């Protein structure tokens, strides 16, 4: 995984309904210890769904 200047890591966001990976984002692992969950648009479901951080 790529690591940035401030300890940021590239993570995948997976749709919690259809389990498809649609987004990539960065998270600072030094300051944020919980998993990220964002409400994003899923192309497969064609609606806004919660997206959770996926494993590597």
Describe what this molecule looks like in 3D.
The protein has a four-stranded antiparallel sheet with strand order 2-1-4-3, with no helix packed on it. With 56 residues, it is mainly beta. It contains no helices and four strands.
The oligomerization state is single chain
Characterize the biggest β-sheet: 4 strands, antiparallel
Q: What structural class do helix, strand and pairing data support?
A: mainly beta
Strand order of the largest sheet: 2-1-4-3
What is the overall shape? elongated
CATH topology grouping: Rubrerythrin, domain 2
Proper CATH architecture: Single Sheet
Q: Strand portion, in percent?
A: over 45%
Rg on CA atoms, Å: 12 Å
Determine the number of helices (DSSP H or I, runs of at least 4 residues).
0
**How much helicity do the residues have?**
under 10%
Unreliable segments of 5+ consecutive residues: none
Cα end-to-end separation: 8 Å
Number of domains: 1
Question: Mean pLDDT, as a whole number?
Answer: 89
Task: Give the CATH superfamily.
Answer: Ribosomal protein L33
Give the CATH class: Mainly Beta
Number of β-strand runs = 4
| Topology order in helix (H) and strand (E) letters | EEEE
């Amino acid at each position: 995984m790529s690591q940035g200047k401030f300890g940021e890591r590239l993570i995948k966001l997976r749709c919690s309904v259809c389990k498809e990976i649609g987004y990539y984002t960065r998270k600072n692992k030094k300051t944020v210890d919980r998993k990220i969950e964002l409400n994003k648009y899923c192309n497969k479901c064609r609606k806004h769904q919660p997206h959770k951080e996926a494993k590597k």
